[in-house]
């Protein structure tokens, strides 16, 4: 239970970082063909190729009777994954991320006209989501399963966008920056429902709680804005490597867990094997799938 819920906090930070980077990199740039193609190429190149490799591999392997990747068992589920309207296991988070890519184009256009309106829009959207109880439309249409998590994850993306818009202009005094702010990361394990000191029902809501959004926003703000860039815990070769393979690690770790759970061995040995195999698989995936795919897409981009 701890493991399945704990990973959600990492996804929250992922959505927040996604909004932050899009806002930081593109808002302020002209909305022209070159910049749009650069945006589309970067977003598609990073997320889509590996995702599609895993989705089709899961479907083909399961069709051949090989279990242990992702349970994409029929053509309807395959189509739903390809069109980002449904996601098995951790693949659910890729769909809202793709929805955010389209949404950001509208925010980018709004920023060209009246950037301050973005803050008003964010406040309105957050209010609507709260009073509508963070809807999650799901079901089946023409045999195609759909499950839209976008409305529950949208607040994190929007907060990231707002923070990204201010990263360059917000001049914090030197005395406010400190390596001690990295300790804000310790708030994340304190939010795990099983060990949280919070006694109210809010600790179990997670995506339905703005209290969680506030804490995760504080963690993100502390690490990005208040911790010096030279912090040894965040700026080192190990961290750079993990950041580079993080996407592959995220998509591949679950199948590795499934396979290891089939093996009889001590839990300590499973943990070591999980770390080693996950890092190896993530490195090979980043080296031979992610990186070549990004280069190929960029090379074929009309802007080049």
From TrEMBL:
Q: Matching Pfam families, A to Z?
A: Acyl_transf_3 (PF01757)
* GO molecular function (one): acyltransferase activity, transferring groups other than amino-acyl groups
Gene Ontology BP term (one): polysaccharide biosynthetic process
Q: Which InterPro entries match?
A: Acyl_transf_3_dom, Acyltransferase_3
Highest rank taxon of the organism: Bacteria
Q: Where are the transmembrane segments?
A: 6-27, 48-66, 102-130, 150-167, 174-192, 212-234, 241-260, 266-285
Could you tell me which residue ranges the Acyltransferase domain spans?
5-270
- What EC number(s) is this enzyme filed under? 2.3.-.-
UniProt keyword list: Acyltransferase, Membrane, Transferase, Transmembrane, Transmembrane helix
Q: Give the record's GO CC terms.
A: membrane
**Known PANTHER family for this protein?**
ACETYLTRANSFERASE (PTHR23028), ACYL_TRANSF_3 DOMAIN-CONTAINING PROTEIN (PTHR23028:SF53)
- Name of the molecule in the record: Acyltransferase
Which source organism? Saccharophagus degradans
Taxonomic lineage per UniProt? Bacteria, Pseudomonadati, Pseudomonadota, Gammaproteobacteria, Cellvibrionales
């Amino acid at each position: 239970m701890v493991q399945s819920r704990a990973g959600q906090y990492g996804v929250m930070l992922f959505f927040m970082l996604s909004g932050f980077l899009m806002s930081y990199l593109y808002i302020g740039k002209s909305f022209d063909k070159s910049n749009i193609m650069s945006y589309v190429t970067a977003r598609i190149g990073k997320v889509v190729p590996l995702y599609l490799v895993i989705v089709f591999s899961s479907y083909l392997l399961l069709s051949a009777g090989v279990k242990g990747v992702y349970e994409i068992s029929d053509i309807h589920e395959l189509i739903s994954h390809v069109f980002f309207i449904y996601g098995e296991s951790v693949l659910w988070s890729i769909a809202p991320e793709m929805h955010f890519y389209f949404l950001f184009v509208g925010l980018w256009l709004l920023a060209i006209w009246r950037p301050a309106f973005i803050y008003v829009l964010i406040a309105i959207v957050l209010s609507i989501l709260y009073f509508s109880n963070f809807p999650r439309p799901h079901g089946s249409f023409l045999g195609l399963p759909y499950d839209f998590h976008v409305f529950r994850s949208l607040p994190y993306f929007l907060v990231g966008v707002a923070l990204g818009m201010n990263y360059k202009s917000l001049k914090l005094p030197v005395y406010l920056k400190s390596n001690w702010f990295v300790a804000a990361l310790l708030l994340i394990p304190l939010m795990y429902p099983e060990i949280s000191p919070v006694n109210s029902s809010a600790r179990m809501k997670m995506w339905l709680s703005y209290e969680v959004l506030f804490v995760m926003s504080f963690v993100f703000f502390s690490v990005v804005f208040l911790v010096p860039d030279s912090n040894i815990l965040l700026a080192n070769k190990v961290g750079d490597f993990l950041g580079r393979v993080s996407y592959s690690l995220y998509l591949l770790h679950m199948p590795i867990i499934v396979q290891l759970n089939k093996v009889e061995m001590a839990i300590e040995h499973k943990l070591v094997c999980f770390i080693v195999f996950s890092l190896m698989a993530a490195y090979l995936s980043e080296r031979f799938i992610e990186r070549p795919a990004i280069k190929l897409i960029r090379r074929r981009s009309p802007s080049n």
